Amino acid sequence: MTKTKGPLHPSVQQFKEFVNHHPKMVHEVRNGQKTWQQFYEEWYLLGEQDEMWKVYKADGETISSPAQENNDEKAVDLMGQMLSFLKKLDAEQMQQHLANVTSAIGSVQQVIQQFQGNRTQPEQRTSENNPFFFRKD
Fold first, then answer.
1. C-alpha to C-alpha distance for 104 and 85, rounded to whole angstroms
2. Pick from 21, 23, 25, 16: which is nearest to 73 by CA?
């Protein structure tokens, strides 16, 4: 029983074409350094024009030791990702996300305080703060 595959999503098709122009990506996946999912996510977030993709083109291939090439590629990859992230960073959007996270944390803190308060209140209850407390005369 085999599954029939439908046509690929247009973005996946574009990514496959992108990989054809950047053959070094195949080598990294085969060596276990990255997965196709990681490459696709970076491609989707950073775009095809990002500087980090230059290291994967066949045109700029240089001969060097594999260890040095790995370190150089990782450094270029990291710097490229950071620069791209900083360029695309929208201050207003970041402020909105931080406000949302802050309010969520505040809500969680309130819930925790309520639970902690419920646990300690029965011990602290006295006749003064309990309207349903009746004493015998």
1. 25
2. 25
State both tokens at 33: 């350094």
Task: With beta carbons less than 8 A apart as the criterion, state whether 42 and 81 touch.
Answer: yes
Residue 31, number of CB atoms within 10 A of its CB: 10
Asked if residue 25 lies in contact with residue 19, where contact means CB atoms within 8 angstroms, the answer is: yes
* Domain ranges across the chain: 10-88, 91-121
Radius of gyration over every alpha carbon of the chain, rounded to an integer in angstroms: 28
Per residue in 28-64, pLDDT (tens digit) is 888 888 888 888 888 888 888 888 888 888 755 443 4
pTM, two decimals, is 0.38
What is the distance between the terminal CA atoms of the chain, rounded to a whole angstrom? 85
